């Protein structure tokens, strides 16, 4: 008999098909977001779960699902997993990194450029039938080329964003927990390491790309926004909660910064409605990795992690290596 797997969210049919070769499946192609109680009920007797960031895996859940051995998220971010709790309960936790780096970097650029050049604001105006004549000062925005790009968080995605800046003759500055070595800095568009204050003060366009953790909560808040140029744009493609959205809305209303491009929000999808009252924001629904090829590649990675766990191999993207002491995997 095949072990049982819960596919907690809707996913590509070919992924379901592939998983059915290894597991007895409980699917959710209606894409219902299960509450913890519903997840617990569905996870009874399951070996594993394929999920996304919407499934919170913590002590409360894990203490009620003793059969569970692996949770595999189709995301690079895994702030929904309590890794210490996973290890305590002998559950392997895996994510789906790397295959999304370039696609996500493309999208960070798309947001930065749309924000700086007021693309969506201009389109809304055009669609509303306001376009009667060309004017020299319609939708004047900020240049991207030749300016200073600031990157907060210089992991794999941050570096992919930085590399793209070469073609735009930009100076790239970054702040990160640790400084990159000189060859990595040179590959990353010649990025220059600076402290957080300098990053905030000198960036013309600032992109936030740090993973969410309790320490990163409101890393950009009132005080940080106050240090930015009034002409600056801010892009967040990382996670809701890293930017204090209420503080950002106030800064945008009062034009203390010029504009923001946001793919992630606090409490998404029920984000702060204050954003909808602003014209100087570009808002997208958490789609930075959403190209057809990349989302499929991420799902395939998540499958590879599940199959490895099933076959007694170390999953390629295991997040809690210390769990191996509690499993029969070598
Ligand atoms: C998307 O937000 C991801 O973490 O992959």
Number of strands: 12
**CATH fold-level assignment of the largest domain:** Rossmann fold
CATH class of the largest domain: Alpha Beta
Radius of gyration: 22 Å
Order of helices and strands: EHEHEHEHEHHEHEHEHEHEHEEH
Describe the protein in words.
It is a single chain. Helices cover 32% and strands 14% of the residues. It is of the alpha/beta class and 330 residues long. The protein has 2 domains: 4-97 and 292-326, 3-Layer(aba) Sandwich (Rossmann fold); 101-283, NAD(P)-binding Rossmann-like Domain (Rossmann fold). α5 crosses α7. The mean pLDDT is 97. The structure holds glyoxylic acid.
How is this structure best summarized?
The protein has 330 residues and is α/β, with parallel strands linked by helices.
Please write out the topology.
Layout: E1 4-7, H1 13-20, E2 24-26, H2 36-43, E3 48-51, H3 59-62, E4 70-73, H4 83-88, E5 92-94, H5 101-116, H6 119-127, E6 148-152, H7 156-164, E7 171-175, H8 182-187, E8 192-193, H9 196-202, E9 205-208, H10 222-227, E10 233-236, H11 245-253, E11 259-262, E12 281-283, H12 292-310
Parallel strand pairs: 1-2, 1-3, 3-4, 4-5, 6-7, 6-9, 7-8, 9-10, 10-11, 11-12
Helix pairs in contact: 5-7
Bound molecules: glyoxylic acid.
């Amino acid at each position: 008999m095949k072990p049982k797997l819960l596919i907690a969210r809707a996913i590509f049919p070919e992924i379901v098909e592939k998983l059915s070769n290894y597991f007895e499946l409980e699917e959710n192609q209606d894409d219902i977001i299960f509450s913890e109680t519903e997840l617990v009920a569905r996870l009874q007797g399951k070996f594993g779960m394929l999920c996304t960031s919407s499934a919170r895996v913590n002590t409360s859940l894990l203490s009620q699902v003793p059969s569970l051995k692996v949770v595999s998220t189709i995301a690079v971010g895994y702030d929904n997993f309590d890794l210490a709790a996973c290890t305590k309960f002998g559950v392997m936790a895996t994510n789906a990194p790397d295959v999304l780096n370039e696609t996500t970097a493309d999208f960070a650029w798309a947001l930065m450029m749309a924000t700086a050049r007021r693309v969506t604001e201009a389109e809304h105006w055009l669609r509303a039938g306001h376009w009667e004549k060309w004017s020299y000062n319609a939708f004047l925005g900020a240049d991207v080329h030749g300016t200073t790009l600031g990157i907060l968080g210089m992991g794999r995605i941050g570096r992919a964003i930085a590399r793209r800046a070469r073609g735009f003759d930009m100076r790239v500055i970054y702040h990160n927990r640790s400084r990159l070595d000189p060859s990595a800095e040179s590959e990353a568009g010649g990025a220059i390491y600076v402290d957080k204050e300098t990053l905030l003060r000198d960036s013309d366009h600032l992109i936030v790309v740090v993973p969410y953790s309790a320490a990163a909560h409101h890393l950009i808040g009132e005080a940080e926004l106050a240090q930015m140029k009034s002409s600056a744009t801010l892009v967040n493609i990382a996670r809701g909660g890293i930017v204090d959205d209420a503080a950002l809305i106030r800064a945008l209303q009062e034009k203390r910064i010029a504009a923001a491009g946001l793919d992630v929000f606090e409490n998404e999808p029920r984000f702060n409605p204050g954003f909808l009252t602003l014209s100087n924001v570009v808002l997208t629904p958490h789609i930075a990795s959403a190209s057809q090829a990349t989302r499929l590649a991420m799902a395939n990675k998540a499958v590879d992690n599940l199959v490895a766990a099933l076959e007694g191999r170390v999953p390629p993207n295991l997040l809690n290596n210390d769990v191996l002491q509690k499993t029969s995997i070598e």
